[in-house]
């Protein structure tokens, strides 16, 4: 038997090694969002990576809200994040945690450090602390409060907890090494005084732990084995390990860093998205032009397509940007076989088939997806008056234009050959109606081989087509200029990022369509029922992606 060759990413290789060497006998990962905004495509990578690893190794996956910073958190974000994680399919089951549930443990850890002579209360002002810290090239200076006795530190820390000091008056610092080449190790602050109400613990606390102290404790308490985070935390790892060691947690979680996912010409920063929302440039955090998970879902992306995308991006240690076109490639690939192919006319003009009897209607049997029989068939009404796309008719066609023009014959998709015989115009010369005749011999599926035509166009029956609003999207960012304005740091917005077409017609086959359902509209792309604005009798569709792509699969 040949051995299966599976290429593993560097994190999997590290996990394999840890399991082999007996460092851990299981795998437990977590996704630790701060509930201060909506999740975006970058977070999706982290979620799917952590969940995927837990699954692959038969381990556990935790969702933990990192709500140690009472100022910024918001319950609305907690709910949206839970919904996004579930939608992506990362099941956390009963493993939902809040860092604020560990405030007591964190306090005990701090007391333990004080007792070991590894932490002290410092009275320097924030500005002085900064000055004493030194720089990348110069070592820091010891705080004059560094050598307080254990008893004095215990008493002061308790007084901090009891609300005897104002914000910023005192901090608790780890006693490590003010001369360390790693600035994070120069007696970092681990607790601060902040008289703020916390959404979970209310007014119980007026001291709050700093991220670098809280995070390793959260991981350790939950018995996380591999704490996977992004590269900016690489320099914090020695401190992470110090906290776990000095607080005497066993087994110790292990931090592993990977490169953040960046998409070219896309806004992911919470600060910028907030501004776009507040200024009404986009219609909320789930505006389909954004790449928050809620926005991607509303636009019509599927969890499967995002998973495919994240897998294609891979996991690495080097920073790079991925082209948005790759995400589009993934959604096309995902929907291609799964979704029905319908007809919709986005810029209608009328086509009248002069020799088709007035008032008559026939039903054509049409496959929902020619490449996937399982999607079944539907019946499509065909009649004398239809709508076709305005651009599928020209009075004076250029060379190689094979669609309708006077005297030319085309195939109406799923129906008959029609030949253009004349057209009508309004006073300004705009075409209003195209006239044609059909040949009953040429019915689709009849096996007609008499002659060939070069063009096939789509259509909808005029009397029973359903009117719909269609929203066409372009990148929110002006791609020529890049995301940020060089002069003032503002966003370079594309004024044409949203085009609303209110006068579209879709074939009468959408009776059962519900929010988030998606379809291919032949020749026009993939579309999705807008979850916010669509009504059964006033359909609104978002274009997820067009059919054509400039994206080439990397080898
Ligand atoms: P942002 O800076 O975009 O607002 P954040 O890092 O502040 O995001 P957190 O809630 O702190 O958001 O992040 C939760 C987790 O998601 C962290 O483990 C973080 O490393 C990870 N993460 C955030 N952005 C990305 C990204 N672009 N690619 C991969 N992982 C990311
Ligand atoms: Mg953050």
UniProtKB/TrEMBL annotation:
One of its GO terms (molecular function) is ligase activity. Residues 27-336 form the Glutamyl/glutaminyl-tRNA synthetase class Ib catalytic domain. Keywords: Aminoacyl-tRNA synthetase, ATP-binding, Cytoplasm, Ligase, Nucleotide-binding, Protein biosynthesis. Pfam families: tRNA-synt_1c, tRNA-synt_1c_C, tRNA-synt_1c_C2. Residues 456-530 form the tRNA synthetases class I (E and Q) anti-codon binding domain. It comes from the Bacteria. InterPro entries: aa-tRNA-synth_I_CS (IPR001412), Gln-tRNA-synth (IPR004514), Gln/Glu-tRNA_Ligase (IPR050132), Glu/Gln-tRNA-synth (IPR000924), Glu/Gln-tRNA-synth_Ib_cat-dom (IPR020058), Glu/Gln-tRNA-synth_Ib_codon-bd (IPR020059), Glu_tRNA_lig_a-bdl (IPR020061), Rbsml_bL25/Gln-tRNA_synth_N (IPR020056). It catalyses: tRNA(Gln) + L-glutamine + ATP = L-glutaminyl-tRNA(Gln) + AMP + diphosphate. Its EC number is 6.1.1.18. Residues 340-439 form the Glutamyl/glutaminyl-tRNA synthetase class Ib anti-codon binding domain. SUPFAM superfamilies: Nucleotidylyl transferase, Ribosomal protein L25-like. The keyword Ligase applies. Gene3D superfamilies: Glutamyl-trna Synthetase, Domain 2 (1.10.1160.10), Glutamyl-tRNA Synthetase, Domain 3 (3.90.800.10), HUPs (3.40.50.620), Ribosomal Protein L25, Chain P (2.40.240.10). Coiled coil: none annotated. Transmembrane segments: none annotated. It is an enzyme of class 6 (ligase). PANTHER family: GLUTAMATE--TRNA LIGASE (PTHR43097:SF5), GLUTAMINE-TRNA LIGASE (PTHR43097). This is Glutamine--tRNA ligase. It comes from Claveliimonas monacensis. The lineage of its organism: Bacteria, Bacillati, Bacillota, Clostridia, Lachnospirales.
């Amino acid at each position: 038997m040949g051995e299966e060759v599976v290429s593993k990413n560097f994190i999997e290789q590290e996990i394999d090694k840890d399991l082999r060497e007996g460092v851990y006998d299981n795998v437990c990962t977590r996704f630790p969002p701060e509930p201060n905004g909506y999740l975006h495509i970058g977070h999706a990578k982290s979620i799917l990576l952590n969940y995927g690893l837990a699954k692959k190794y038969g381990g556990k996956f935790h969702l933990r809200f990192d709500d140690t910073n009472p100022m910024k958190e918001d319950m609305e974000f907690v709910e949206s994040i839970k919904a996004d994680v579930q939608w992506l399919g990362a099941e956390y089951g009963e493993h939902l945690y809040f860092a604020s549930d560990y405030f007591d443990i964190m306090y005990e850890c701090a007391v333990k450090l004080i007792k070991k002579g590894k932490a002290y209360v410092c009275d320097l002002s924030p500005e002085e602390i900064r000055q004493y810290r030194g720089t990348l090239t110069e070592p820091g200076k010891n705080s004059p409060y560094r050598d307080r006795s254990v008893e004095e530190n215990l008493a002061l820390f308790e007084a901090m907890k009891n609300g005897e000091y104002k914000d910023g008056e005192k901090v608790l610092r780890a006693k490590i090494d003010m001369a360390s080449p790693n600035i994070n190790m120069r007696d970092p602050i681990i607790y601060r005084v902040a008289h703020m109400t916390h959404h979970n613990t209310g007014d119980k606390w007026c001291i709050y732990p700093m991220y670098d102290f809280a995070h390793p404790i959260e991981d350790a308490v939950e018995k996380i084995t591999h704490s996977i985070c992004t590269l900016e935390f690489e320099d914090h790892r020695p401190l992470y390990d110090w906290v776990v060691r000095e607080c005497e947690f066993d087994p110790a979680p292990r931090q592993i860093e990977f490169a953040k996912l960046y998409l070219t010409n896309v806004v992911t920063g919470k600060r910028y998205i907030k501004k776009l929302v507040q200024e009404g440039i986009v219609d909320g955090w789930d505006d389909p032009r954004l790449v928050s998970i809620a926005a991607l879902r509303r636009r019509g992306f599927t969890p499967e397509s995002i998973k495919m995308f994240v897998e294609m991006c891979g996991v690495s240690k080097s920073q790079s940007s991925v082209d948005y076109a790759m995400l589009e490639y993934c959604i096309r690939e995902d929907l291609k076989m799964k979704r029905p192919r319908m007809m919709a006319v986005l810029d209608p003009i009328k086509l009248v088939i002069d020799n088709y009897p007035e008032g008559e209607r026939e039903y054509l049997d049409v496959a929902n997806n020619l490449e996937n029989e399982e999607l079944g068939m539907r019946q499509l009404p065909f009649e004398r008056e239809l709508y076709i796309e305005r651009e599928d008719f020209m009075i004076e066609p250029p060379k190689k234009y094979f669609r309708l023009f006077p005297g030319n014959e085309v195939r109406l998709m799923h129906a008959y050959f029609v030949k253009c015989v004349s057209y009508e115009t309004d006073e300004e010369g705009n075409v209003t109606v195209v006239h044609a005749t059909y040949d009953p011999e040429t019915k689709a599926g009849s096996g007609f081989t008499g002659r060939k035509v070069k063009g096939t166009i789509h259509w909808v029956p005029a009397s029973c087509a359903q009117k719909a609003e269609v929203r066409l999207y372009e990148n929110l960012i002006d791609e020529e200029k890049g995301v940020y304005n060089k002069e003032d740091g503002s966003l370079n917005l594309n004024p044409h990022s949203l085009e609303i077409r209110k006068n579209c017609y879709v074939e009468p086959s959408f009776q059962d369509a519900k929010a988030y359902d998606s379809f291919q509209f032949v020749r026009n792309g993939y579309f999705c029922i807008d979850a916010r604005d669509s009504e059964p009798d006033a359909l609104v569709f978002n274009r997820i992606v067009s059919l054509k792509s400039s994206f080439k699969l990397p080898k």
